[in-house]
Each structure stands twice: as structure tokens, then as C-alpha cells.
């Protein structure tokens, strides 16, 4: 069903918790809800629901499987729903069921977003059945980093059916001096002590263990530095035990999941992304860049697309605590370098990774899909 001025786009995300894909979806729909008619479908009771924009964006809970891409019953349920609601496009986030349901209902295009990346060694060319399934279910794949695009091409996805739009984030203002002092006090971090921070799920692929091992190597060289881990996950107990075994004591602080990670990010002297897998264009990296906080990142995936070594941060060898400790020592022992990288972080954020830059990419994509449909909002803009 065409909606006159607005193109009706239904997003489907199977996540039951709050992750990067969900935060990105919230930013896109909130930022473009004046130009498009959005609906978001998710599993009933998903923790993501309170983070989504309400009012202008329709939020629909259905009895679809949580955290699962394909289920035959979900496919039929979504097929019936799309038959009834007739969106102009279905845009999915790890939901093959939704794309198949859309195609069965005659809704085109069916779009998929690739939010993660794999090491090149793990890429496998799609077999005949997989290629046929992709051709049947997916008209276009949106990639969030050049590295993820390379993954898709290596898998056999035709280049002309991939669009790359890198993630961006809203610019956050740092806490006031009083707010920062109060937050430090609540964490047991002295005023004046420097903070190296990580914002990510506590999972093996995110590499927080590498940060802890690097921190242990720097205890005598940088005795005033604290390490703050924002996020939760299956490895939390393991990482807390590792920090204790390494003798980091109160200098390694795990605070768990928080709704507003930017408040803690604003305390960081340096942000670290130690991912050893999945990373494309990290939202926490761009948030920190926007506040003038330089990043030290592993050379995996999209990290090297966000950080230009020596311009807005430093790059270390993936899964290498020695390399990370050297990079942290370099940046934290040279105030002039830290200031220069801080300025570079804000500049590169504004040029490439702002919320506005990302929204322009999505708006251009959706408007290009509306050509020939006489959707006046896209024609006007």
C-alpha cells in the first residue's frame, strides 16, 4: 500500500535485548520519522522496546522467536501480517523469516542489514541452495562497513545488490565538571586519575581480556590509570576473575549494562575497542569521537575505517596485549599527542560518523527505492 506522501517501511528485528543493531534502528527511525512512515516489529517483551521512538513510529509486538533468524511458523505469521498491512518495503535485521514472508506477500523490496563482520579466514562461498535462498528472499543488502561489504562479496552476494552506509551517532555533550566529579566519586575513581574505557558486550569476540592483560603490563608505568568496562555479557564473571588474578584490584571496574553509556564515556581519557571479531562501524567509537575522545582500536574489521592511525587515535594488532599496552602508553604519556588526537577525533566524527551523515545515507537509499511511486516527500526533499 502506498501512503501518498510517505513511504511505508516496516522494520523487523528479532533481538530480545539491547544491542548495536537495535540502537541503530532507534536512531534511524527517530531521525527520519518526518520523512517516512515506519513500523517496527519485534518479539513480544523485547528489552529493546523502551529504547524505540514512540508515537510517530508504530511499535508492534508479535509472537515471533526471540534472537532467531528463521522459523517456519514465524515466516507464515509475518506473511499473513504483511498481506494485511501492505508496507512499501520490509527492512530486516537478522530475520530471514521476515524477508521470506514479505516476498510471499508480494512486498518488495525486501532489505537485509549486515551489522557484523567475520575474519576473512571464516568466510565461505555460498553454496547453490544458499545463493538461491538469497536470490529469493533478498533484493538488497545494506552493509555498515566496507569490511562487511567485502565479506558479502566474498560470500557471493552480487556487488550491485549491496549498499554501504556506515553507522553514525548523535553528538553527546560531556558531563559538567560537577556531574563528572559525582560520577567519579560513585565509581571510587579519584579526581585527576585518568580513565581508559570500553563500551561493549562482555563477550569473547569483544576482546576485553586483551584490555585487562594490557592494563596489567602498565601498572607500574601508568599507576594513575583506571579501566572502566561498560556493558554486560556471558564473560563478566570470567573477566572479573581475570582482573583479580592480574592484580588490577579496584583499578578495573565493571559497571554492567547502562541506558546512557555516554555519561561514562564522557569520563574517558581514551576509548578502547579491542574487538577480535564482528566489528563494523562501532557506535561507541563514534560517540566517543564526537566528544573529542581518541580511540585505540584493534586492526580488525571496520575499526581501521573509523580510526586513522595518528590522526584520531591509534591502531594496535588484534588480540595482542603487548601491542595494545604500547599504544596506550604512547597516547597516555604524551599530552601533546593526546590533544592532537582529540581534535582529530572531533573532526573525523563530523566528517564521516555523525548521526546526520548516516541519516542522509538512509534517506537517500529509501528515496531511491521510491522512484516511480510518486512519493511527494522524497520528490520535495
Q: Can you walk through the features of this model?
A:
The structure is a single chain. Helix 11 links the parallel strand 12 and strand 13 (313-316). The protein is an alpha/beta fold and 381 residues long. The mean pLDDT is 94. It contains 15 helices and 13 strands. Helix content is 41%, strand content 17%. It is elongated and about 65 Å long. The protein has helices spanning 20-32, 72-85, 96-104, 128-137, 146-155, 177-187, 208-217, 236-245, 261-265, 283-290, 303-306, 321-332, 335-353, 355-369, 376-380, and strands at residues 7-13, 36-43, 58-62, 89-93, 110-114, 140-143, 162-164, 194-199, 225-230, 252-256, 270-273, 295-298, 313-316. It has a 7-stranded parallel β-sheet, with helices on both faces. It has 2 domains: 7-168 and 355-380, Rossmann fold, CATH 3.40.50; 177-353, Glycogen Phosphorylase B (Rossmann fold).
Amino acid at each position: 500500500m502506498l501512503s501518498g506522501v510517505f513511504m511505508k517501511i516496516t522494520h523487523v528485528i528479532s533481538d530480545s535485548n539491547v544491542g548495536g543493531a537495535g540502537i541503530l534502528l532507534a536512531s534511524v527511525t527517530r531521525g527520519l520519522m518526518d520523512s517516512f512512515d515506519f513500523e517496527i516489529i519485534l518479539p513480544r517483551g523485547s528489552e529493546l522496546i523502551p529504547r524505540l521512538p514512540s508515537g510517530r513510529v508504530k511499535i508492534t509486538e508479535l509472537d515471533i522467536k526471540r534472537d532467531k533468524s528463521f522459523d517456519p511458523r514465524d515466516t507464515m505469521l509475518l506473511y499473513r501480517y504483511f498481506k494485511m498491512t501492505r508496507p512499501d518495503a520490509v527492512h530486516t535485521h537478522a530475520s530471514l523469516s521476515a524477508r521470506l514472508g514479505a516476498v510471499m506477500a508480494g512486498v518488495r523490496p525486501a532489505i537485509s542489514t549486515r551489522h557484523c563482520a567475520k575474519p576473512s579466514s571464516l568466510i565461505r562461498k555460498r553454496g547453490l541452495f544458499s545463493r538461491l535462498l538469497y536470490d529469493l528472499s533478498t533484493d538488497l543488502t545494506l552493509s555498515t562497513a566496507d569490511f562487511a561489504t567485502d565479506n558479502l562479496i566474498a560470500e557471493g552476494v552480487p556487488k550491485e545488490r549491496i549498499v554501504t552506509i556506515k553507522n553514525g551517532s548523535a553528538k553527546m555533550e560531556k558531563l559538567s565538571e560537577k556531574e563528572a566529579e559525582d560520577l567519579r566519586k560513585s565509581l571510587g575513581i579519584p579526581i585527576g586519575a585518568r580513565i581508559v574505557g570500553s563500551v561493549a558486550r562482555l563477550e569473547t569476540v569483544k576482546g576485553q581480556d586483551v584490555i585487562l592483560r594490557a592494563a596489567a603490563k602498565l601498572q607500574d608505568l601508568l599507576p594513575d590509570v583506571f579501566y572502566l568496562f561498560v556493558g554486560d555479557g556471558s564473560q563478566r564473571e570470567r573477566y572479573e576473575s581475570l582482573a583479580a588474578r592480574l592484580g588490577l584490584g579496584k583499578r578495573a571496574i565493571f559497571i554492567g549494562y547502562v541506558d546512557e553509556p555516554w555519561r561514562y564515556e564522557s569520563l574517558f581519557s581514551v576509548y578502547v575497542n579491542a574487538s577480535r571479531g564482528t566489528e563494523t562501524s562501532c557506535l561507541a567509537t563514534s560517540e566517543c569521537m564526537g566528544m573529542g575522545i581518541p580511540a585505540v582500536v584493534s586492526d580488525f574489521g571496520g575499526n581501521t575505517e573509523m580510526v586513522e592511525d595518528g590522526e584520531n587515535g591509534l591502531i594496535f594488532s588484534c588480540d595482542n596485549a603487548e601491542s595494545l599496552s604500547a599504544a596506550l602508553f604512547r597516547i597516555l604519556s604524551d599530552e601533546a599527542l593526546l590533544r592532537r588526537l582529540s581534535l582529530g577525533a572531533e573532526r573525523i566524527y563530523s566528517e564521516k560518523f555523525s548521526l546526520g551523515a548516516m541519516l542522509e545515507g538512509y534517506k537517500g537509499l529509501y528515496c531511491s527505492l521510491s522512484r516511480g511511486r510518486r512519493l511527494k516527500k522524497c520528490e520535495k526533499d
